[in-house]
Specification:
homotetramer; six-stranded parallel sheet; three-stranded antiparallel sheet; globular
Amino acid sequence: MKKKSRFLHTPIEPFVVEGGLTADAVLARMERISFQGRNLASARRIWNRMLEDDVTIFLGMAGALSAGGLRLIVAHLIAHRYVDCLVSTGANLYHDLHETRGQHHYVGSPLADDAALAEDQIDRVYDTFASEEEFVANDNWIAGFATTLETRAYTTREFLYQLGRHLWDTTKRDGILTAAYRANVPIFCPAIADSSIGMGLSQARQKLSGAGHIDVIGDVVESANMIIRRPRTASIVLGGGTPKNFINQASVQAEYYSPEVSGHRYALQIVTDVPHFGGASGSSLEEAQSWGKLGAASPRVSVQSDATVALPLLVSALASTASAAVARRKAPVFTLASRVMTIDGQTVPHDRFEEVNESAV
Amino acid sequence: MKKKSRFLHTPIEPFVVEGGLTADAVLARMERISFQGRNLASARRIWNRMLEDDVTIFLGMAGALSAGGLRLIVAHLIAHRYVDCLVSTGANLYHDLHETRGQHHYVGSPLADDAALAEDQIDRVYDTFASEEEFVANDNWIAGFATTLETRAYTTREFLYQLGRHLWDTTKRDGILTAAYRANVPIFCPAIADSSIGMGLSQARQKLSGAGHIDVIGDVVESANMIIRRPRTASIVLGGGTPKNFINQASVQAEYYSPEVSGHRYALQIVTDVPHFGGASGSSLEEAQSWGKLGAASPRVSVQSDATVALPLLVSALASTASAAVARRKAPVFTLASRVMTIDGQTVPHDRFEEVNESAV
Amino acid sequence: MKKKSRFLHTPIEPFVVEGGLTADAVLARMERISFQGRNLASARRIWNRMLEDDVTIFLGMAGALSAGGLRLIVAHLIAHRYVDCLVSTGANLYHDLHETRGQHHYVGSPLADDAALAEDQIDRVYDTFASEEEFVANDNWIAGFATTLETRAYTTREFLYQLGRHLWDTTKRDGILTAAYRANVPIFCPAIADSSIGMGLSQARQKLSGAGHIDVIGDVVESANMIIRRPRTASIVLGGGTPKNFINQASVQAEYYSPEVSGHRYALQIVTDVPHFGGASGSSLEEAQSWGKLGAASPRVSVQSDATVALPLLVSALASTASAAVARRKAPVFTLASRVMTIDGQTVPHDRFEEVNESAV
Amino acid sequence: MKKKSRFLHTPIEPFVVEGGLTADAVLARMERISFQGRNLASARRIWNRMLEDDVTIFLGMAGALSAGGLRLIVAHLIAHRYVDCLVSTGANLYHDLHETRGQHHYVGSPLADDAALAEDQIDRVYDTFASEEEFVANDNWIAGFATTLETRAYTTREFLYQLGRHLWDTTKRDGILTAAYRANVPIFCPAIADSSIGMGLSQARQKLSGAGHIDVIGDVVESANMIIRRPRTASIVLGGGTPKNFINQASVQAEYYSPEVSGHRYALQIVTDVPHFGGASGSSLEEAQSWGKLGAASPRVSVQSDATVALPLLVSALASTASAAVARRKAPVFTLASRVMTIDGQTVPHDRFEEVNESAV
């Protein structure tokens, strides 16, 4: 009989149904099935390894996840330091603020009559509705808050920390912004101008000349300096967009100034976009290696799935199995209240890169 | 203050993370989030309603689910009568037979070198490998079995029952074909010629003149007659393809002969295909209503997800919460061992439709 | 200065806009852009090479292409022998027959009210409408025709040839079925039971006992024997589904009996499905190599696009640039009117494989 | 005979193949087919109507279109004023600058060995390669240019105009940035920080303290003021992302200050993303109506296609058939060289919104 091929070593183990399984048991039984189910099981293992290693974990977040009911998952990940730094679209932070302010998004339908919704001033996000009137009030609230700041440029990191503080002080409610404020986790929002937070900031100028200035280039410097300070990093990306690229760019930019940086040590993405149209949102983690965004030997997994399906299961499982690792973690310690942030006691400039001399390393 | 819009009634409830949640608790917390996560939670509720109602439940199955580790989920659904009739592609039955015969599919990688695999005679299904040599042996085994049958045309339903019996007799192992045999659940395979089972049948002709005859048109008649006998039906579809259309076609064909038939009473599909290219696999359940495949008021839900992600969670939850309904169910009783099947004691012809006179109803 | 990398040889040439460009000039300017645009330009080149080589060209056709306005493109490809054998879903042949019989599909909208359509007995295919009443009449017409045949099993190849003949005799109109009849191009329909043609055939049994018998396993034998007779083949696939697999399976099955067969020499697919969910429709042409469906060195290209966008441009360009190659082609010559077809004067059995002894080759 | 349904009025007209057809003739024959082919034909008609109406046409551009060979199409659209304002990702402008500086992207393969590419410092964008060394030089070139500007905050509109000017002065080559400079077409880049242009700007700070300041909130004000000045607008979007939302946001923001603004009058998008995961990139134009981003009666079309397939055909056809309309157009006239831009001679502030009193209108 023919010798068994070197390609055949680990048999697929069909998923066995049983009542009463916990989320982590479900994922454990998905370890040896195929396709995206297996990838989701791998995502749990890789996230676990990140938590057990000494790495700074970036979380990127695009798509309508906050409006879609995942904001308290992200808040949980921040509060319990499953992640160390959030990079988000403006919309996800805005929809988080909307609910933290005591308002709601509503169960709707993708088949709704949009003309009727427009007449009622209801905004639709696929199958989810919200009140435009409340949105206008949010914008105004943000504009008002922005006028209380100094009339100088803020990085989004500094601005969002202050916004989280104000939100916590006035609401005492859990959410992404408030959790990040309370846990001293930095948030970057590279495309803040492209969101209702940006609209609120723009309206601040109507109230106060010189208000609403954001230094997004400072964010580029600061995020790279974070990695120069702590070169071992991991990337978790939900949904592509600007956060995915910004997290990778920070690593590439840091590498330019420090020989110790050599791409993320782990990478995990949950995306719905595909590689073959060339866009960055759907780009593969293999491609990321060619750019040095990801180390060539770094564990990685791409899960092709809507985050609203994959994330509840994944995080529920992690909450069961990763709590010990989370408790043991030495997460980086930030101070974020000032123009200049610190990480583990060291300043992180936003106006120049920390150049690390190769010989000095 | 403005009156609240009629469109805003049920707030989104963000998913709250907690360790130790069971699969059904995870799904319960997804009921009021958005997008495909909400749809998956709805799928559980709708399946539950099917089980509590007096309907014949069809399950359609396309894609590489058996090779991909979901065959024992389908076997479980059949054995415990979460479903009453399976419509499958040939490949899913073939890969089931492969494992039931004691062989395996293997964990592989989509990045494998296909030329090297070809040299080793390893066949790849995305990230899953299998031995071509074992496949050739399966084909031969099927061909051999087919020569033991009478040299007349068999519907796929009759043939697959006999195949399941032979498989059970020789292996005593669980799988889709053996579970269906043991639970007397009919299987249709409208595109059997387009699969390795079809290849095995074709090779039977080499061994025995006149062997390997399949009456797929008989399947069309028989499946429609099943619905004429029991007009209340439900449709669960995994992955589109020929099974999706065949289940719908049976209802449309039955309606042609019986005024009591008026489309499925419930419909649930887990698909990755999309509607906007016009293909049937991705077609919406709304579109199905225009054809009368689905009643206009029938509960329905489409989940856009890889089944390897969605099904383990969904069925694990059902196994916890639907067991009472399953126990109470009066599932249709079939006999399948002969050329003519019966349902609840009545014959179901495959050579003519049971015409139901409107006045006689 | 650093030496240029071996990876950088052919620069991207941006597409330059100009009025009055012909379809082939547009495609020529797409040769050196990126992503699916480049792939579409490659598809033209590869198809051209097929036409210049001595290969039997199979065309597979799934999705709603006939209803969607591409049936005369396929008819043209058949009539002018850009292809030599069609493998189709039943639906595409049925919707072709519908129009060849003088009826229409209609411009509709995906946003239509499906309940209202159902009331009017209008069937919707995404953005396209048709009359259910006319469909019922077609089914009946097919049933009537089927009763005029001998009461024995027909391969789909033989049945569809006779159907094409009858359609031509009664309508004298161009279409897929009539073009194939007139050009003596065989059509296989492995999933014929899963279509309205299957429904029509099933209704034939109501009119005449013993009518409507189809030998789909005979198709498996016959298609493989075609390749045993002429081992050099090419595969063009539109939209995946059963035709894609059937064309590949024929090659694999043929190889089992003849050492001269070694996978398609060229492969081109225009698909919307993706590989990462494991289904055959979206599977890559690299994966096909592992199975031996495609030779390891065979030119190949996958175009990720709706065929209604890609095919009009591609075939318009081919009609300009490939006419000389088409004129020079020595396409295989078939006779299809009998139970046993011939290719280049040799019979092609459907009841046993032509075994080719290795030493005899 | 039954009366014909009101739903059936315009028959599908199958595409008829003919050699020598021009791009516009191909599109004309796609007007009455189905699915995305029909949508692409509609896109041409709607774009034509924009050109014949008195509207400001915004073009949004995401994805890797510049690297992928479409940058000279966009340059052509700008130079000939098929569009009046570009909103782009930073990457598209950066890859444009890369080629305008005389460098190239290269034809590559998605199957390349990324570890080998990384070793050679070759960056991959799906099937396209580029030299990292050249990218580093670009970043440095941008940084150097940025130090020549005043040390104050620039809107991206002002900065990109100056960048285009410098690029033209030093290269005299066609491209997006240079065409926009020469045609006085404003470019906004709301996520400029998330791109290599942002990286270049961040590096300017290393060279000169206080350099590289961008006022992205100023862009929000300025873009809305453009619409307050000229309330009739149209939106053309390639690929979703921040440009899509920014164009819509400008309209919504403008409406807040002026009763004359009521959503875009026309909308056309060519996207590959889908609506059902809730992200803005894939959101439907129907959904846009609920937000007031698009007027309820505005002509609109969504084409689900890779832009590298759809755009060459679409723009080639427009270049033939829209030239008269383009020649007749009264496009808005901008001056962009200063901190404050003008449109048709009126200033467009970036530090406060132009409030239009309802009674004054």
